[in-house]
Amino acid sequence: MPRYSFALAGCLLAALVVSAGPPAAPSRALRADPKAKPAPAEFAGVWVTEQPSPNGDTVRRHALRVIDADTAAWTLAQHSAGVRATVTTRGRYEIAGGEFRLHVAERYAGDEQLPVRDDDKKGPRVYRFAWDGPQKTGFTLVAPGADADSPWRTMVFRKGTEAPAVAADPLTPKALLTIDRTIKKEPRYGETPLYLLLAFGPDSTDRVWAVLDGTVLYLDKNGNGDLTDEGERVFALALPGDGVNRRTPLFQVPALEAKSGKHTDFFLSAIRLPPGDGVYVKMGVKVNGKTLQVAGPTDLRMTETPAEARVLAFGSRVVTAQVSHTMPATPEVGKAVDFRVRVGTPGVGAGSFVGFGSEDQTANPVAEFEFAVGGAPRRVLLPLTERCCGDQFYAAVTAPEGARTGIAAAAVTLSYPNCPWGPVVPTTTRIDVMTRQP
After folding, report:
1. Burial tier of 67 (Cβ tally within 10 Å: 0-12, 13-18, 19+)
2. Which CATH architecture is the domain 27-159 placed in?
3. Which residue from 59, 126, 150, 277 puts its CA 20 to 30 A from 284's CA?
4. Which of 340, 43, 1, 325 is nearest to 167 (CA)?
């Protein structure tokens, strides 16, 4: 097994980034029942509200989507310093007698399906419901069981606009946003196929499909769109003393002979998480046999249709530095915390950032922090001289005493002088700061 393979079960994150626009819900939570009538016209679409806590250290963002005449999905994204979590509940809804009732049938943390909570099995979630006026441009839900002074008790919803389905990162290669997802020929699968699309080349024009079928991976090694070609059916490795493990299959391929070049040392390792058989992966390849690039784990998920497949860019002209979402950390006041960064190319869909291998590099990315101390900026310049986990650059940072804490309390500018993979334009991101943790 390669040294950069992983134990994914221990590091999967349920948290997703809370972003602008309505909180996202997994596509399978939004599927309409083909037998159901359409959603009522006045209630169709996405309805949103935002609830800050009184001291501003936590923000809850809700998106309620009425899918058809019987089904609704409610997504709650909560953000406090160092914590970002998104949970979607789906089920049958009723509006009658001044009440909104949701009979929960499914729950998701991001794309991962969760068990239904015991209290939801006992009966519906019930809220007092009222339109805000005859024009029905908004409505209010009140949770009767919440304390009267709770900031979460009353929710005032307004009609929102769905965020674009593609990745919001402005540095995503443009070719990925309109990439052709056609597969010319597929084999007869034994199980539900799960899809991932790899794009190679400076302009991301060379497409290679990876399709998981149980413990078999169909890999379009020559990039011609035909998954039935000889040698493109790859079997999971049998590990010593373990055999082939369906829950955590591992695949290795010596080379992909695609149009953009010969890409070697391909690996893909996966883990199935019950219930729902959600499959998350980490994968990597040496582009043109020289440069290791890796994607995942955490929120890189294979999907049930090509249209939903994550798109990863290898060997792209676009190179940027990004605060690590695979091994996130939040600066703390008066305590050293390892701050990690990945360098690579953003793709399409959650978890689609492709990072370069870090361990053999001598040039260092640089993180410049700006903390607010006593109303004045305090800058901390931090070369990221340490390496770990195959694709992480890091160093320890300590937020100065007296620094402002909370959501987006500081900023960090990432740069990479003398980057071996191409010029990196500095990018600035707001980050959370925490009080010192025990």
Report:
1. buried
2. Beta Barrel (2.40)
3. 277
4. 325
3-state DSSP helix/strand/coil percent for the chain, to nearest 5? 5, 45, 50
- Tokens (6 digits) for 3: 């040294």
The predicted-structure confidence for 219-255, as pLDDT tens digits, reads as follows 999 999 999 999 999 999 987 877 788 889 999 999 9
pTM, whole model, 2 decimals? 0.84
For residues 74 and 64, the answer to whether their CB atoms sit within 8 Å is yes
Q: What are phi and psi of 330, to 5 degrees?
A: -120, 125
Q: What is the CATH number of domain 321-433?
A: 2.60.40
The structural domains of the chain, with segments of one domain joined by +, span 27-159, 166-316, 321-433
pLDDT tens per residue across span 346-403: 999 889 999 999 887 889 999 999 999 998 999 999 999 999 988 999 999 999 999 9
Residue 327: how many other CB atoms lie within 10 Å? 18
> DSSP letter string over 358-425?
-TT--S--EEEEEEEETTEEEEEEEE--EEETTTEEEEEE-BPTTB--EEEEEEEEEE-TT-TTS---
**121: part of which helix (H) or strand (E)?**
helix 118-122
